[in-house]
Design goal:
It is elongated, with a radius of gyration of 21 Å. Helix 1 runs parallel beside helix 3 and helix 4 packs antiparallel against helix 5. It is 66% helix and 0% strand. The protein contains 8 helices and no strands. By secondary structure, the protein is an all-alpha fold.
């Protein structure tokens, strides 16, 4: 049933190339292998956009929304993969915190100079707050 659904969900010309898959898993693996590759040009473009985003004439809300949409697009391309192991070393939490801190700093760097005091207060916080907390 799943195999049939998958075959009916892909374009006709692509379905022909996977028509004789033995299972839904085989079909999915084949399609993922061909079309699930990270697009380097798209990653480059998103990173370039992120590095150029500044608040400028935008409101804080507009600026934050622009940053968040670019981050969400990057996440959709799966450029950051968190650890899925069940270890007790704390590396998973540290890596995730470093990832969030990097995004916080990216957000703070693009703020207008009128927010220099707020930015300083946030940067003096230990540990650094979440992006949501800094935004509010």
């Amino acid at each position: 049933m799943v195999l049939s659904w998958l075959l009916n969900s892909v374009l006709k010309e692509r379905a022909e190339s996977v028509l004789y898959s033995q299972s839904a898993k085989d079909l999915w693996s084949d399609l993922e292998d061909r079309f699930g590759q990270t697009n380097g040009a798209k990653l480059f473009q998103l990173q370039k956009e992120l590095s150029a985003v500044v608040q400028g004439n935008s409101s804080i809300s507009g600026y934050f929304t622009k940053m968040k949409s670019l981050w969400d697009e990057l996440d959709a391309l799966n450029t950051f993969s968190g650890c899925v192991c069940a270890c007790d070393c704390g590396a998973k939490a540290k890596n995730l915190k470093a990832h969030h801190d990097k995004r916080l700093l990216q957000f703070l760097m693009g703020l207008n100079e009128t927010f220099i005091g707020v930015r300083s207060n946030i940067l003096l916080s230990s540990p650094l707050p979440t992006i949501g907390h800094a935004y509010s």
